[in-house]
Specification:
The protein is mostly beta strands. The protein has one helix and 29 strands. The strands form seven sheets. A five-stranded mixed sheet has the order 1-22-21-20-19, with no helix packed on it.
């Protein structure tokens, strides 16, 4: 679609002259537009290493609003993740054997995690998403999916039929967006990197599968002894649920899938300096290299995707000891519009209008969740 805006034309007061100028201007725009080739399917929008913003690379200016710590003893932060803000402002944070609810001001309300395998109970690891006044929880150990209220009171079990799902990606009006994997037979695990199909499915609220949305093929090193992930796969739904953002592999490339059609409508990347991989030790290594696996030279370029409005915030592998992690921002057209550092020892958890939530690690290794107001122009 070509959108043409004509306005602000000065003239000598003669209507015929004005009309002629508008027509000539219109023809000129059309000629220019038609001379630009339409992008072919799968074409990648290339961005340089420098974004559009003039002050890119700055340290983001933030003002603290409030903070959450576990000093009160009601809960304990070990690996807090997946912070979500409900429509009423309630804040939910997942952790090990914890699904914590806080008030909009950061006051602790309740841990709605219940250990077990019964209705509304979680055996081990889990995924969750908040919608309206409901919390949808998937127990990853037992594949069970159910709905509870904000107090953790069980409402209904959702039986997902005919397939095995590895994770809950998000919620849409039609139902659930779930990820399943299709591993090759063990006989094909011959000690090499192999692409393993990971399929994003749309599942109705009654648990029936509607259709496949997209398929990604991250590589794993498959030997007779073990299967070890090699590539990263990161997915995130846009705030309105109409788009699926994905990063699959190790090199900087974003694919945007239209949820309605299942088609890739945009692919973009930027010129990105690779970050050398440094072994972190067996207890914290992102990748434990089995015998025979290729050497790892570089970190994956992208760590996480955070949609916000029509933009996408990307947590990159670039980090500065004093300034923290580098965040890239792309607009809805895939243009690299901004980048900034988050601040030392901060991890981005969520973005909302005018503010962000960060996880901060203190010198004594304790963890604090902080809500900041953004003072820098974005």
């Amino acid at each position: 679609m070509i959108e043409i805006l004509v306005g602000g034309i000065e003239n000598d007061g003669n209507p015929s002259v004005t009309s002629m100028k508008q027509i000539l201007g219109l023809i000129g725009v059309l000629v220019i537009a038609l001379s630009i080739p339409s992008p072919s399917v799968g074409q990648i929008a290339e961005n340089t290493s420098k974004p559009i913003a003039k002050d890119a690379g700055r340290l983001l200016k933030l003002t603290e609003g409030w903070r959450i710590n576990d000093e009160g003893g009601d809960f304990y932060f070990q690996r807090p993740h997946n912070l979500q803000v409900a429509d009423d402002g309630s804040i939910f944070i997942a952790d090990r054997e914890e699904l914590l609810r806080f008030s909009p001001e950061g006051r602790f309300i309740k841990n709605i995690f219940r250990k077990g395998q019964g209705p509304g109970e979680i055996d081990d690891s889990f995924m969750y998403f908040v919608q309206g006044r409901d919390v949808f929880i998937q127990d990853l150990s037992t594949q069970r999916l159910w709905r509870s209220d904000f107090d953790g009171v069980f409402q209904e079990q959702i039986i997902v039929r005919n397939t095995d799902f590895a994770g809950l990606i998000g919620l849409v009006p039609d139902g659930f967006v779930l990820l399943r994997s299709a591993w090759p037979p063990r006989s094909e695990w011959t000690g090499k990197l192999m692409g393993v199909p990971h399929i994003v499915d749309l599942v109705a609220r009654d648990g029936s599968r509607i259709r496949a949305i997209a398929t990604f093929n991250p590589r794993s090193f498959l030997s007779q002894r073990s299967a070890t992930s090699w590539d990263s796969l990161r997915t995130a739904l846009s705030n309105d649920g109409k788009l699926l953002y994905s990063f699959c592999g190790r090199d900087y490339l974003i694919e945007v899938v239209d949820m309605a059609s299942g088609k890739i409508i945009r692919r973009y990347r930027r010129d990105y300096p690779k970050v050398p991989y440094v072994e972190k030790g067996p207890e914290v290594a992102r990748f434990r290299r089995p015998e025979g696996a290729p050497n790892i030279e570089y970190e994956p370029d992208i760590y996480s995707l955070v949609p916000f409005g029509e933009s996408l915030w990307i947590v990159t592998s670039t980090a500065d000891k004093a300034k923290g992690s580098l965040i890239d921002v792309f607009d809805k057209y895939g243009r690299f519009i901004d980048s900034f550092f988050l601040g030392s020892a901060r991890t981005l958890m969520a973005v909302e209008e005018g503010g962000i939530f960060c996880q901060e690690k203190n010198e004594d290794e304790t963890i604090t969740i902080v809500r900041y107001r953004i003072d820098s122009p974005l």
